[in-house]
Inverse folding.
């Protein structure tokens, strides 16, 4: 812990503070060839969609390395600040590091500038990190494909943003999914939104949770890198909502209850 | 000029007088436990006395606003770098004070060619076990720890009186509303002790005037929060409830 005679005087920029302390974002590795025609190694399924009260963000818990299942308790939905969630697909080391940088960035800004960062500012911050990471991404070492959900206090509405590898962000009006299992459920999400019982944005919290659990179970049936729930081991998908009250994760008991009713056969 | 020890001691003594004189008008900031965490609270003619430092740490300051701001930024920088490089669990008030702010303040105060910080500071923390910790730090780097709450004020007489009175009350058993009411009453009583007539002239004569003309700043650190960052400023409703119960 070091007292600096001149504190950081930038406008609440945590990344600048980090760099001044000697931290460097990993650059491209010299002498390593770029992968040609690489694909994003993202063994996972995370999704987000608008429902009646806000946004639901969900993800499975499995982490893989090639064909091996490495871990079944991975948290892929990460709180960044009280009103922001990030769901990650891609290389965990880079994704978790990005989440940590972002979390400190938003909180440092809020505390130092005595106001929250604007929603646009938060969205840009993740773009900047992804851009910084392009070198690692093109080498296939650090590709991250995140979903970013944040509550906009000005619009009084939760927003979902999806990013490409270079940092371009796209606002999502209804639903999105990323990871290796995402292709399996994107069609279902679209179908549910257009021709389901009611549009996703009109569904209640319980209905939204039920759909998310069923989607993740479906993805796990077809994608080996997406983990199925294992109720006997108390392993369930991560489910979180984002509303004007901020984020809220479902605790294990509540998830177990909803999981049981959601997966019961008719 | 300062080659003789006596001259240096005299200069330090003069600095004490200078800083104490400058601090005299500083309005009290109190921090007390309550049954769900801790409360930090104060009235002032200008806002800018109470701040969030990190997930479980808050700051109260009395003194020159620019000095409060500079130390606040230093605390923020230290806390956030530590939290990022290690873990949020490694950031605590004792380390921030003992290894960060206090030695630097002492050095600054004793280097008599540099301008001293005009500040008294309160650092409060609700630790991982939910136990409130209270720290008070002087402009010369001297700091103290308290278990049952503490206060800072520009006038030392007021500060010492508040410290004694806080210890007499079972704040830890109070609800937030009760703790606010009692803290507010203590603040009201402490106004009468102000030794400086010039300062007394500018202080509101009644609590009603204090609510109407000054800013009430307050925040809680509470285990009831479901968030990682447990700092929460008092809501308008809580302040209104307090006003109607004490005025």
């Amino acid at each position: 812990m070091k007292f600096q005679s001149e504190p950081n005087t930038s406008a609440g920029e945590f990344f600048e503070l980090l760099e001044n302390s000697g931290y460097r974002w990993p650059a491209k590795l010299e002498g390593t060839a770029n992968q040609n025609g690489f694909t994003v190694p993202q063994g996972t399924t995370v999704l987000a969609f608008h429902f009646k009260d806000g946004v639901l963000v969900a993800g499975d818990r499995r982490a893989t390395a090639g064909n091996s299942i490495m871990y079944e308790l991975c948290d892929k939905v990460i709180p960044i600040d009280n009103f922001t969630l990030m769901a990650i697909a891609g290389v965990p080391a880079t994704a978790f590091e990005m989440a940590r940088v972002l979390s400190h960035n938003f909180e440092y800004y809020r505390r130092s500038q005595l106001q929250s960062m604007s929603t646009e500012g938060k969205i840009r911050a993740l773009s900047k990190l992804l851009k910084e990471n392009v070198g690692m991404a093109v080498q296939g070492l650090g590709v991250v494909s995140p979903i970013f959900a944040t509550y906009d206090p000005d619009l009084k509405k939760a927003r979902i943003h999806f990013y490409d590898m270079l940092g371009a962000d796209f606002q999502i009006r209804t639903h999105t999914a990323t990871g290796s299992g995402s292709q399996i459920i994107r069609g279902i999400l679209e179908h549910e939104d257009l021709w389901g019982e009611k549009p996703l944005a009109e569904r209640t919290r319980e209905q939204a949770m039920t759909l998310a659990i069923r989607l993740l179970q479906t993805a796990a049936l077809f994608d080996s890198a997406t983990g199925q729930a294992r109720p006997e081991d108390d392993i369930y998908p991560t489910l979180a909502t984002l509303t004007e009250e901020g984020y809220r994760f479902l605790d294990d008991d509540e998830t177990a209850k909803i999981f049981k009713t959601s997966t019961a056969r008719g | 000029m300062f080659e003789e020890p006596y001259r240096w001691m005299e200069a330090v003594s003069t600095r004490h007088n200078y800083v104490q004189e400058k601090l005299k008008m500083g309005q009290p900031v109190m921090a007390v436990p309550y049954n769900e965490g801790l409360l930090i609270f104060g009235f002032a003619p200008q806002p800018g006395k109470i701040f969030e430092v990190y997930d479980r740490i808050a700051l109260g300051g009395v003194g020159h606003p620019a000095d409060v701001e500079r130390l606040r930024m230093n605390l923020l920088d230290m806390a956030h770098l530590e939290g990022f490089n290690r873990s949020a669990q490694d950031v605590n008030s004792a380390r921030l004070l003992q290894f960060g702010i206090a030695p630097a303040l002492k050095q600054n105060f004793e280097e008599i060619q540099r301008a001293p910080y005009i500040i008294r500071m309160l650092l409060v923390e609700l630790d991982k076990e939910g136990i409130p910790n209270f720290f008070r730090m002087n402009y010369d780097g001297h700091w103290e720890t308290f278990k049952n709450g503490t206060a800072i004020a520009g006038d030392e007489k007021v500060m010492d009186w508040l410290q004694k009175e806080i210890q007499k009350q079972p704040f830890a058993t109070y609800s937030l509303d009760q703790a606010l009411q009692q803290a507010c009453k203590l603040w009201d009583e402490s106004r009468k002790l102000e030794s400086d007539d010039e300062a007394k002239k500018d202080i509101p004569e009644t609590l009603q005037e204090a609510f109407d003309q000054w800013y009430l700043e307050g925040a809680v650190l509470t285990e009831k929060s479901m968030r990682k960052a447990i700092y929460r400023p008092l809501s308008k409703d809580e302040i209104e409830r307090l006003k109607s119960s004490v005025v």
